[in-house]
From TrEMBL:
<dbReference type="Pfam" id="PF00440">
    <property type="entry name" value="TetR_N"/>
</dbReference>
<dbReference type="Pfam" id="PF19344">
    <property type="entry name" value="TetR_C_32"/>
</dbReference>
<dbReference type="GO" id="GO:0000976">
    <property type="term" value="F:transcription cis-regulatory region binding"/>
</dbReference>
<dbReference type="InterPro" id="IPR009057">
    <property type="entry name" value="Homeodomain-like_sf"/>
</dbReference>
<feature type="domain" description="HTH tetR-type">
    <location>
        <begin position="36"/>
        <end position="95"/>
    </location>
</feature>
<dbReference type="GO" id="GO:0003700">
    <property type="term" value="F:DNA-binding transcription factor activity"/>
</dbReference>
<feature type="DNA-binding region" description="H-T-H motif">
    <location>
        <begin position="58"/>
        <end position="77"/>
    </location>
</feature>
<dbReference type="InterPro" id="IPR001647">
    <property type="entry name" value="HTH_TetR"/>
</dbReference>
<feature type="region of interest" description="Disordered">
    <location>
        <begin position="1"/>
        <end position="30"/>
    </location>
</feature>
<keyword id="KW-0238">DNA-binding</keyword>
<dbReference type="InterPro" id="IPR050109">
    <property type="entry name" value="HTH-type_TetR-like_transc_reg"/>
</dbReference>
<feature type="compositionally biased region" description="Basic and acidic residues">
    <location>
        <begin position="18"/>
        <end position="28"/>
    </location>
</feature>
<protein>
    <submittedName>
        <fullName>Transcriptional regulator</fullName>
    </submittedName>
</protein>
<dbReference type="InterPro" id="IPR045823">
    <property type="entry name" value="TetR_C_32"/>
</dbReference>
<dbReference type="InterPro" id="IPR036271">
    <property type="entry name" value="Tet_transcr_reg_TetR-rel_C_sf"/>
</dbReference>
Length: 257
């Protein structure tokens, strides 16, 4: 069973990152595609600047990484908050590109849990300043009215609720446990990730393994209470999957001046 989960919509400021929709005007369509491509280039430059300068980076740092002047940068972003939201959108893409295949892998329960956790921790390890920036929710000079980390957390928990619910029903168990279970797992993983990112008292492999065992122990304990014993190293009879689809943002790519 596939479950389509629609995320909450990003702030309207993120609209310039929208997909390419034809207007029937070839010149306008070429301009829109150009602006979408340029904006994406600047977001990648901002990621590089984040690696170098940390979450307190300025627009000067992003412009320098992109090899342009600030006025050029401001043709594609309304302000620093607009850039923040574009970075949030990109961070979500990076995370979901790894997380969704892991969650949907046709593996036994234990390696499937481990693979999903590895996906999350690999992203925050490779992009620690991006995660710190998004978790902080804003810039010193202007707050942002969107919580990217919370939105993604809600989306993942909703998808996990659907996945766990399918498995509980398959095992003839009460699927009402799926929602609090899913939110509990997601919250634990996020909090542990933030702790690990700041403390680094153990390796990524170690924290992933500890969390894998904790989550499996909870799942195993619940099923055993109902007389069901699952083999952690044997795939279940049916591979339940989820599909996450981002709602297209409004088209605000602008017109040539």
């Amino acid at each position: 069973m596939d479950v389509m989960v629609e995320p909450v919509n990003r702030s309207r400021r993120s609209g310039r990152a929208s997909g390419e929709r034809s207007t029937g005007d070839a010149r306008r369509d070429r301009w829109r595609k150009h602006r979408i491509a340029r904006r994406a280039e600047f977001v990648e430059a901002a990621l590089r600047a984040l690696d170098e300068h940390g979450p307190d980076l300025g627009m000067d740092d992003v412009a320098s990484a992109a090899g342009v002047t600030k006025p050029v940068l401001y043709r594609h972003f309304e302000d620093k908050a607009d850039l923040y939201l574009a970075l949030g959108h990109r961070g979500t893409e990076i995370l979901f590109a790894r997380l969704i295949p892991a969650i949907n892998a046709e593996l036994a329960p234990l390696p499937r849990i481990r693979m999903a956790l590895e996906a999350f921790f690999s992203v925050i390890e490779e992009h620690p300043n991006l995660y710190r920036l998004l978790a902080r929710r804003g810039f010193p000079d202007r707050p942002v009215d969107a919580d990217v980390v919370a939105e993604d957390k809600e989306l993942i928990a909703t998808a996990l609720t659907a996945l766990l619910g399918d498995y509980l029903r398959m095992l003839n168990m009460d699927s009402g446990a799926a929602e609090p279970w899913a939110h509990g797992i997601v919250g634990m993983v996020q909090n542990t990730g933030e702790w690990w990112l700041e403390k680094r008292t153990m390796s990524r492999d170690s924290v992933v393994e500890y969390l894998t065992q904790i989550i499996w122990a909870a799942l195993d304990g619940l099923t055993r209470q109902h007389g069901i014993v699952l083999d952690p190293h044997k795939p279940l009879d049916a591979n339940k999957v989820v599909m996450l689809k981002r709602r297209p943002a409004p088209d605000r790519t602008g017109e040539p001046s």
